Automatic annotation (TrEMBL):
The lineage of its organism: Eukaryota, Metazoa, Ecdysozoa, Arthropoda, Chelicerata. InterPro entries: DUF7041. It comes from Oedothorax gibbosus. Pfam families: DUF7041. Residues 13-99 form the DUF7041 domain. This is DUF7041 domain-containing protein. It comes from the Eukaryota.
Length: 167
């Protein structure tokens, strides 16, 4: 009697996200769930898929883990180490938040989402977030928004977009 041939799931891993490795792993996990003909559930298989899709400079950050993978749950070990060792540190996130993102070609709501993501882990009060967000807007927009009460972060972003204050 022959043993059944193991089924390999067909999936396409997303491109690695240098600035947000936690998001990349979340996207990978969603991809694992969509595996055809069945979801990828084995930690070793998830580990191998992720390792195969790491850019070389990112793989260097977890070289020790790649050369000696954990035997119990290599995927979990890789995930925790990569999130811990890459992306922006909490200190860098706060600095970027305080020094300012630049609105550039982005919509105000997109800028606000980026700022909220950076601030999420640091429990930045909404009032401070509103002040930081307003600093990124042109002065004439700040003047108009000063008359809006009560002004919230989301209202400020929407006013900027709906009033077409791009300059």
């Amino acid at each position: 009697m022959t043993e059944p041939t193991p089924v390999v799931a067909a999936i396409k891993i997303p491109q690695y996200n240098h600035s947000d490795p936690a998001l990349w792993f979340q996207m990978c996990e969603a991809t694992f769930e969509l595996g055809t003909p069945k979801p990828v559930t084995e930690g070793k298989t998830k580990y191998n898929y992720c390792v195969a899709h790491l850019p070389p400079e990112t793989a260097s950050l977890v070289r020790d883990i790649l050369l000696s993978p954990a035997t119990d749950d290599p995927y979990k070990t890789l995930k925790e180490a990569l999130i811990d060792r890459s992306g922006e540190s909490g200190h860098q996130e706060i600095l970027r938040l305080l020094q300012g993102e630049h609105i550039g070609d982005r919509r105000p709501t997109e800028l606000l989402r980026v700022m909220k993501r950076r601030a999420a882990a640091h429990q930045v009060p909404d009032k401070l977030m509103l002040e930081l967000f307003l600093q990124h807007l042109p002065s004439h927009v700040q003047t108009v928004l000063a008359a809006v009460t009560p002004l919230t972060l989301d209202k400020a972003a929407l006013y900027k977009e709906t009033c077409c204050f791009y300059s």
